Amino acid sequence: MSPRPKNPGRTDATRARLLDAAVTTFAERGFHGSTIRDIAGGAGLSTAALYVHYRTKEEVLYQISRDGHEETLALVRAAIASGGTPGERLERLFRDFTRYHAQAHTTARVINYELAGLEASHRAQVHAIRRRIEAEVQDLVRQGVATGEFDVTEPALTTTALLSLGIDIARWYREGGNWTPDELAERYAKLALRLVGASG
Amino acid sequence: MSPRPKNPGRTDATRARLLDAAVTTFAERGFHGSTIRDIAGGAGLSTAALYVHYRTKEEVLYQISRDGHEETLALVRAAIASGGTPGERLERLFRDFTRYHAQAHTTARVINYELAGLEASHRAQVHAIRRRIEAEVQDLVRQGVATGEFDVTEPALTTTALLSLGIDIARWYREGGNWTPDELAERYAKLALRLVGASG
DNA sequence: GTCTATAGCGGGATAGAC
DNA sequence: GTCTATCCCGCTATAGAC
Prior knowledge:
The structure is a homodimer. By secondary structure, chain A is an all-alpha fold. Chain A has helices spanning 8-29, 36-42, 47-53, 57-81, 86-103, 105-113, 120-147, 155-167, 169-172, 181-195.
């Protein structure tokens, strides 16, 4: 993906600063509205230095997008693997999913709304992860239907609605608003149970 | 907003074509990813001709955004004014709100996700309309709580969730998918009732 | 109101020194 | 690995003819 450095430690820290600055400006102005001067400058570097770490601006976006999606998939899988009834696992999944989208709302904004900035092959890889996330959740919904715990006639559509609630947080959430990520997670987990007809 | 023409009929048609082309490219590539060549070319005009109708690219976005938001506000108000119990009105509101976001998903994508492209004063005006939309819906939710028809402890948060479900359709909806706008509207209206604890 | 042509600037990316 | 300096392209917007 990027040139291999001789001094990983320092290089890794620099890359982290670049990704951080990129997330900030991508979230604020979008991929095309952000310049490499914004990114490099935000990390305290010249534009030329950026190219030691990433080949193009698009590659920076890809790194952010891939990392974020993999983290989300891991989070979803962990909740599903955690045991209990489908309702308990859905509640846990949704609590974590919601908290992530609130806490990391700038990152979440980039990975959910800047997909169009990705080059075709990168976008395809990211979409593959998204499909796996959706498949995991849909599977859980179907399990709940099978056990009779959920009252859902169309699992695919209900899954879309569930994910919508979480993803859209990245659009509207602001620090210093009415709810902390934890408070929101608590309440949204209950709303998720209502959506699947398992009011707990 | 734009220069007054001598020949309104022909000018209006040209502007409509420009707005149409702009919506298409803004929805696909975002405001900053779209060029005035995309917009003008999509309407069959040269870039110079665009400036007869709009002073800047941003003004094109503003026109789209303002029109779209006003249409949405009108739709929300019409449903609320239509009479019946809060539950009946919420169901109607949500059916219309959902259908709009599916049917006009390209426009909806632009007006909901390209707000950052607006100049400060324009953005402020649009945000004012958004707040009115939210206020109308929240008011309806509170009415349902007052009559005991809805089971909601936090009307503000529930309103956010309701709007989220509708708005996020603009992100994921595609023509030729699993649901027509009407089918989706039907099902989402039922989900809205579940969210407010008024399963009908 | 529309065109062709172009000004003028800001963007992504690179060259070459340290 | 980072810098300064710069290339060169594509973008927004305008000039001036029809």
